[in-house]
Amino acid sequence: MYNIMIVEDDITIAKAINDYLNKWNYNVIYATDFKNITEQVIKFEPHLILLDIMLPYFNGFHWCSEIRKVSKVPVVFISSANDNMNIVMAMNMGGDDFIAKPFDLNVLNAKVGALIRRTYSFHSQINVIEHNGVVLNLSDTTLHYNNQKIDLTKNDYKILQLLMENLEKVVSREEIMQRLWESDNFIDDNTLTVNMTRLRKKLTESGLNNFITTKKGLGYMVE
Question: 128-221, what's its fold?
């Protein structure tokens, strides 16, 4: 069963689409919190998103751009703002199709089915770890926070991946060193300290103060 996510602030339209697509054996949800669309996308892992342009807080162009940072999931814009400029903008922001309102639900269903058939082989599944608005993209080893992209070194990425895979658990220095250098050979303990200091400086400069906590004598953790 394919997951469909509807991002539409007109609840009447959202429910009508939801009810119709459910009849075609899609697993459908519609957004209710328009401040945190990307987090909902990551949690639900949709196979396709239906996205309105005019939304509270941020418009659909913004959310499509944010979604594209973490996923290649197909995005179909649905909007009454169907002039050429908005259609071109939708495609440039990463949209895969545009359906003008008002639309026939049969046409919508046909387009959804066609796009899903073209897309899967499952190359567009989300591959990220998210915690408190911090998104680690496992596909391109980048970090996203507060609408900014944070480039990571190979060791930065390995440290964050290990800590975020073990949220609220202490990870020992030995475990981190094993992940970084994948060797039982002796590695100077100060080498890890240098790597951790550089990573923390990079996080702090991006507004992530104390994202990594030191547990003295035990190791590190992300809480």
Answer: Arc Repressor Mutant, subunit A (1.10.10)
